[in-house]
Design a protein that fits this description.
Cathepsin B, Chain A, 11 helices, ten-stranded mixed sheet, 3 domains, alpha+beta, three-stranded antiparallel sheet
Length: about 425
């Protein structure tokens, strides 16, 4: 990205030229496409994306030219999307009018009595839960609007590490597929409902076992019944109570709702974000700490848009802004899980995968029919990928995260936003044996 920005600075004076007369903008766009692996279905689509990229580039330049701004923007991975497209594909918090009633009356929600929080007199001046081993690596929700699930698992991962000493990455896909009482998978949800699901389900599976697909799928009941990490209840922090929010963050990572739909949020790259932005909540993130710099206090926020956004996937957002709601409404919808009981013992090691009464594949493999007769499978092959897609040629398969077979081009494909991403079919990784 440093090389790209060096190039960007060289063409700053040309940013107002029409695209047709600015080969430098076109070259920058080609470099950007190469860096982020972007391809387009047609030249017409590519030209449209170039136009969008150019508008975002001008917006970035205009903002970064303001010496008084405490944060910077960049032509990041979302720079070929209009703000409308970005809003439609990368958000997913769904607070409704009834949420305040549900949050107050949920049988799982604990009273705010402060018993489980650090004392106010013991709150440190700064804190980063990443340095204490309570935060997993930045994840990427892709174009699935399931930010609520990433925020919820992040909070559960944090309290589990604090209580047990073990950092375990947990399954957002289980919440997307199986938590259907109120949440709606990639179409949006709320962290409280996710906590309630984990409590009622008596635990949640790991990311490794129930891996992320980037789309809603059928609930895997066997994996849903693997209760690796448990919680006992959850707490809703009073709305607009920034002091209580700070006390909670000093105790553990905290889920929050924010407005993440503004263009400056979309293209954020570093510094202390001060807005302006709406307080209409549409996105969910995780507060993992707080600090101060140059007289400005800020929250450390973990997002779920991959490491190419922001500060390697994080944002510094101003706190003590003087607004009760907080910048982007960060003080208005905060909650966290409570854990007091121990986790259940590990589940037994998975056994072989059964194809039929006579045929088995190894654990973690997928059975693919190699030969049919009158709708009956006469012989089986074993795909070296779990929950894989068996191709129509009965000789190849694709991993679940690249679910479209193109046997003519020897590729496994998936849709990512407005682009198609591919992996080669290959015996070692994806083909049936």
């Amino acid at each position: 990205m440093n090389l790209l920005w060096s190039f960007l600075n060289l063409i700053m004076l040309f940013s107002q030229l029409p695209i047709s007369k600015s080969s430098l903008i076109s070259d920058l766009f080609d470099s950007w496409c190469e860096e982020y692996g972007k391809t387009y279905a047609s030249e017409q689509e590519k030209q449209h994306r170039l136009n969008v990229f150019h508008e975002n580039y001008k917006y970035v330049n205009q903002h970064n030219a303001d010496a008084n701004s405490s944060y910077t923007l960049s032509v990041n991975a979302f720079a070929d999307l209009t703000n409308h497209e970005f809003r439609a594909n990368y958000l997913g918090l769904s607070p409704s009018k009834s949420d305040s009633v549900i949050r107050l009356n949920s049988r799982s929600a604990s009273a705010i009595d402060g018993d489980n929080l650090i004392k106010e007199s013991e709150i440190p001046s700064s804190l980063d839960w990443r340095n204490k081993g309570a935060v997993t690596a930045v994840k990427d929700q892709g174009s699935c609007g399931a930010c609520w699930s990433f925020s919820a698992t992040g909070a559960v991962e944090g309290i589990n590490q604090i209580k047990t000493g073990s950092l375990v990455s947990l399954s957002e896909q289980e919440l997307i597929d199986c938590d259907k009482s109120y949440n709606d998978g990639c179409n949006g949800g709320l962290m409280d409902y996710a906590y309630d699901f984990i409590i009622k389900n008596k635990g949640i599976d790991t990311e490794e076992d129930y891996s992320y697909k980037g789309r809603s799928a059928t609930c895997d009941k066997n994996k849903m019944n693997k209760h690796v990490v448990t919680i006992d209840s959850y707490v809703d922090i009073p709305e607009k109570d920034e002091k209580k929010l700070l006390q909670a963050v000093a105790t553990q990572p905290i889920s929050v709702g924010i407005c993440g739909s503004d263009s400056s949020f979309q293209l954020y790259s570093g510094g202390i974000f001060t807005g302006p932005c709406s307080t209409s909540l549409d996105h969910a993130v995780l507060i993992v700490g707080y600090d101060s710099k140059d007289g400005k206090d800020y929250w450390i926020i973990k997002n779920s848009w991959g490491k190419s956004w922001g500060i390697k996937g994080y944002m510094h957002m101003v706190r003590n802004s003087g607004s009760e709601e907080g910048v982007c409404g960060i003080n208005t919808l905060a909650s966290y899980p409570v854990k007091s009981s121990t986790n259940p013992p590990p589940s037994p090691t998975p056994g072989p995968t059964k194809c039929n009464i006579f045929t088995y594949c190894s654990s973690g493999e997928t059975c693919c029919c190699a030969r049919y007769f009158l709708g009956v499978c006469l012989s089986w092959n074993c795909c070296e990928a779990e929950s894989a897609v068996c191709c129509d040629d009965h000789r190849h398969c694709c991993p679940h995260d690249y679910p479209v077979c193109d046997t003519k081009k020897n590729l496994c494909l998936k849709k990512s936003g407005n682009t198609t991403v591919s992996k080669p079919l290959g015996k070692k990784s994806f083909s049936a044996s």
